[in-house]
Structure formats: C-alpha cells, structure tokens
Design brief:
mainly alpha, single chain, about 45% helix, two-stranded parallel ribbon, about 110 residues, flat
C-alpha cells in the first residue's frame, strides 16, 4: 500500500494549526485516537484483550508497508513465546485469590 519511507512521530501536544499542517504533509497518520481526518488510520492494539490479540496487530501495520511475510514470521515467534510463558506460569503457580476492598464513609 505505502512505500517504506520516513516515519515521523508527531508530538501530541502540538497546536491544532500546526497539527493540521503536519497532517497535510503526510500520506497517512497511524493514531490510537479516533479522528475524522481522511488520512488518519486508527490503531487501537492496546484496547484489544489478550497478549496474542495485541501482537496480532503487527499484521495490520505490516499490510500498510507490504511486509506481510515479515509479520507472519514475527507473529509466529511471538505466539510461541507467549504460549510457552502461559504454560510455564500455569504449571508453576496456583491461581491467586485477589480481593478488592473499597471503604466508603457515608457520613
């Protein structure tokens, strides 16, 4: 989809006018924030539940740069590590009992 080129990080605290100028100079902006600009691609991997679900977003980014083969290789390695970690943690520790207490004084 896009040629591999410069990747620039835009400062989140940038003034609105400067931000608009920056958006006009790029083909696409990958952002975790919902935006109405036509060249903004929403990327919300951190909202996806589960470690493997988050790692799977690498396929989304890779498709933008025609790097699907590399993302498949990375995802395969990462998923093996996650599965190995899950198996080792499950075998070593019992499930913990956690209590959340919230004290509220209604006086």
């Amino acid at each position: 989809m896009f040629d591999v080129g410069a990747i620039e990080q835009l400062a989140p605290e940038t003034a609105v006018e400067t931000r608009r100028d920056q958006l006009d100079q790029v083909d696409a902006l990958i952002s975790g924030v919902v935006a109405t600009d036509e060249n903004v691609i929403q990327f919300s991997a951190s909202e996806d539940p589960g470690a493997l679900h988050r790692v799977e977003w690498i396929h989304f980014i890779a498709a933008l740069f025609n790097q699907e083969a590399l993302s498949n290789e990375y995802f395969g390695e990462a998923s093996q590590r996650v599965e190995c970690d899950i198996d080792s943690v499950s075998a070593e520790r019992p499930i913990p009992l956690v209590a959340w207490v919230d004290l509220f004084d209604s006086r």
